[in-house]
Amino acid sequence: MRSSFLLILGFVLCFAAAQRLLEPKYMTETVDGALTAEYYQDAGSNEVLFVGDCEVYENFSPVELYREHGVTSTIRGGAQQLIWHSYYLLEEALKHETPKFVVFNVLAMKYGEPQSEPYNRLNLDGMRLSISKLKAVSASATKGEDKISYILPLLRYHDRWSKLSLADFKYFIQPREKVGHNGYMMRSDTVPVDVVPIEEKLPNYDLAEQCWEYLDKIRDICAQKNIKLVLVKAPTIYPFWHEQWDEQIAQYAQANGLSYFNMLKLADDIGIDWDTDTYDGGLHMNVQGAEKCARWIGAKLKEMESLSDFRLDPEVNEIWQRKISDYERMKATQLDELAEFGKIQTLTYRESEQ
Amino acid sequence: MRFVSYEFLLLLAVALVLYYTACRKCQWQLLLAASAVFYARSGALHLLFITATVASTFLASMAMAKRERKRERRLPFALCLVFNIGILAFFKYSPLAFPLGLSFYTLQTMGYLIDCYRARPGVKPALSNPFKLALFTSFFPQLTQGPISRFGELKDTLYARHELKADDFTEGLLRVALGLFKKLVIAERLMPLLGIQGGFAGWCVSSLLYAVTIYCDFTGGLDIAIGVARMFGIRLSENFDRPFYAKSVSEYWRRWHMTMGSWFRDYIFYPMSLWKPVLRLSKVKALGKRAPVWVATTVTWLATGLWHGATWNFVLWGLLNGLVILVSQELTPFYKKFGKKYPKLSESKVFSAFRVVRTFLLVAAIRSLDLLTLASGKKGLLSLPVSALIVLVAAVLLLVIGEHRMRKLQNPAARMGASLSLFLLTLVFGAYGAGYDVASFIYTRF
Fold this sequence. Notes:
The complex is a heterodimer. Chain A has helices at residues 2-22, 35-42, 54-57, 62-69, 83-93, 117-124, 131-140, 154-157, 166-173, 209-224, 243-255, 267-270, 287-304, 314-341, and strands at residues 48-52, 73-77, 101-105, 180-181, 184-185, 228-233, 259-262. By secondary structure, chain A is α/β, with parallel strands linked by helices.
């Protein structure tokens, strides 16, 4: 009996070690995949929670929001994070903290059904095991996907044994570096907008029923926790945001007493310069654009409800000063790399010690 | 339901827990229920055919039991035989989806039927409970690819009450682990490479690869079947005895798919050899005394080929096997003379090794006919990345060196350790999950 127990324990340990070695670390490529797991380090006492896809984690800088307005915030965003991903990530986040605002980016409303496994993985791999995760997997899985492998990633990634890199061994031993600055993924390079997309006519502009259902769920869960839900459409040129979609969101917001900001229409008000504030020709903001968006949304939120100025709280301020320091150091590194190599190379960083 | 699936794992876990706890007094009934679930999950419509086989066989056996004379039993026997062979033939030749395990359970129940037919007058049919016959026909571990059990061998273990024993459980677990290793680490990795290409050299390589693939695939499936049954305390017949160590084709067939070989031997070869019209052939001078053996062997191997598939390549494969065995038998006097003339050489290890290699190559060459219909891809061995090739070679070596030793392990803890190691190796190096389509076992198609 004792030997059986030891054998099973040995098996479990070997299994766990193999899993740790073989699962993707999201440290050298597709670093966006690290953001979901990083949330747990930044969760706790944020007053604003941004939720959505790349239009939030690339377009709003929580560090700048703090620096300008003293508002603590974090982002629960991932690459092509669909609305059901967002809902379950929000549901889980609200078990860790109760912010005053949830800012939800509405681009995902255009996707009415699960899109692809790689994006599911990027958004859900880092999620801790919980009922919310199980529900998220169930809602997100595309046809033929192995749902159990979201709980036991070895079953999905076992085949990486032939593709292991030095980074896999490095992060097998060491803790991973950070990608996000409270969920914001920094890009300091600039690629101006040179082509404005032409609107493509669609046969049907109705946003999918399933998306509305999840938006209702997001609204309900925020209402239950007495959290103000704010809908935004981040200022990006691509993918094309149709006027008909915008009207539907605006009507929904009005019908449910929510605020909705189409920041694309408000770009001049925000101060966005399409020649200097985007790093990929209009798809995402660079750090300058993200800082402008953060400053602008901070002011709007403060108009809606009085938010604490945590700069006046020495304990919180000390934490955020370290975040600012890490943020500025990374920005400087990226700018140096741009000057030296013509492109940025550093997307991860080690947090400053307390 | 596939052996390599979560739902099978779930079914097995639930059945095992109930078997040794809540259902200790109704163990065989639980196995029947589990078999029904297993089969229904593979296609509810197919339940109809297996039920028809069970019902017809039960009715025929009961009808035969009431008749004392063998002549009187002939009608129910023949009707049932024709009915069931008819179902098998219909699906073999029709484009309709082949019911899971039809070939296997038909042979098994027809074996039972023939045993009832042959029973001495006054002897009751072995089973007066149709549900027991249903379990014998559909016992889920062996349903899809055997082994083809004989009622006489299985009845004492199948319906008996079993207590959970460390020996049974760990032996079963080890066999399951071995089976999964063979299937997922070797067979599934080789499967996409099979195909005829690159002229004679390509055919040679493909034939050898196919021999390894089908060995790992088929014995892997059988290991799982025997292992699962063993976990329930039930001992199924072994189906393989290191066939690639055989020194002749006839010995190979006594070591490969042994339960099928013995079925065809007992129910076709012997009756055919002893059938009066065939025996009379030995008196025809032009044909010689061995004519009945030639006829019986040819018919047996023709039936074996047809059982495997209704296409010409299987018929040719069966006949070729029969021909090689017959020629080998005819040359026996020559071998004996050779042995007497060169006793040292014929008893040397080198000569034994030569015979083993020759048999392996001969069998691989005959079996390569399967490639024409079973090939799933034509990528070629060189399409395999070096890392995968290394794993493959290492796995085959581990199997050659370790399989026999592992199966001889006596200590339950050692067996448990070996099983868990194999599970871990399979989990990491197995060809499954995204990017792979874990195909059904090759023999489930027969």
